[in-house]
Design goal:
Mean pLDDT: 91
Strand content: 25-35%
Low-confidence stretches: 171-184
Radius of gyration: 19 Å
Number of strands: 13
Oligomer: single chain
Shape: globular
Order of helices and strands: EHEEEHEHEHEHHEHHEEHEHEHE
Helix content: 40-55%
Distance between the termini: 34 Å
């Protein structure tokens, strides 16, 4: 059986140290502040990113990973005798998945498998983590692909956006909506549906976020006690931990995977966002 190498992009929001521990090859996405271009988590840390975000008026811009970058990296591992499985950031939100498909076609290799996660951040990260652990267990590529698709098709992404100004600046809501929402302490709750981000609900304040997310986990989740629950945050660790504690108390969760949102995702959601990821029924 051929050796298997799991690939991911930095939109999975797993820390570099954990990526190395999992033996995953991570390709960073790029983010630009004007003429300054950075590689997510490689040449700009999450701390540096949020500091820049507060100082600079113009929104940062993200770029998809080009096919040439995938060609170089895929070729490197093909020459070492690996089969490659790349689990990509949602194709609905980025062209990176398509870039990897182009690279596969250019290399004309049957040893490259590219899967659209239809997800992002730690929701994607949980799938990457599972695939990497299965490699360590000696599972076959077919078994890993089946599990990845199973998780992808059942992964819930529920997130509360804390910074309405970021949504306003990105053109997702009007200035009036942002002003009224801020005044009333309204927090939009969003979710993923088939790889797209869609509205879910609106709540008042942090207590409203906690209540709504727990209600949603009760309605949609299954066997939550034995799942690994994913969470993320963007420069608001204290609230993320409050939410984690409430979830743990309610469902007796044994394990969480919690990481800060990096530049690729943070360029769109800004500071104050918190998400929960779990498998639905």
């Amino acid at each position: 059986m051929k050796k298997i190498k799991i690939f991911a992009d930095s939109a999975c929001d797993l820390d570099l140290d954990y990526i190395k521990e999992l033996d995953v090859e991570m390709i960073p996405m790029t983010v630009a502040f004007g003429d300054e271009i950075f590689e997510d988590r490689v040449t700009i840390t999450t701390k540096e990113f949020y500091e820049k975000l507060r100082r600079i008026k113009d929104l940062p811009k993200t770029s998809q990973i080009p096919p040439s970058r995938f060609v170089d990296k895929f070729k490197e591992y093909l020459e070492k005798g690996y089969s490659i499985l790349y689990i990509a950031f949602s194709s609905r939100l980025s062209g990176t998945y398509q870039s990897a498909c182009i690279a596969k076609d250019m290399l004309e290799s049957d040893d490259i498998t590219v899967i659209d996660s239809k997800g992002a951040s730690v929701g994607l990260g949980l799938i990457v983590r599972e695939a990497a652990l299965m490699v360590k267990q000696g599972r076959t590529l077919d078994e890993i692909v089946d599990r990845v698709i199973y998780m992808r098709d059942r992964m819930e992404h529920i997130f509360a956006v804390g910074n309405l100004d970021m949504l306003k600046r990105g053109g997702r809501i009007s200035t009036a909506q942002a002003a009224i929402g801020t005044l009333l302490n309204v927090k939009p709750i969003l979710q993923f549906s088939d790889g797209y981000i869609i509205p879910y609900d609106k709540v008042r304040g942090e207590k409203g976020i906690i209540k709504k997310i727990i209600e949603t986990m009760k309605e949609r989740g299954y066997d939550l006690e034995n799942q690994v629950i994913g969470m993320n945050y963007s420069n608001n660790l204290e609230f993320c931990l409050q939410l984690r504690d409430a979830i743990q108390k309610e469902f007796n969760i044994k394990e969480f995977v919690i990481y800060e949102i990096g530049a690729a995702i943070g360029s769109h959601v800004g500071e104050g966002t918190t998400s929960v990821f779990f498998l639905r029924k």
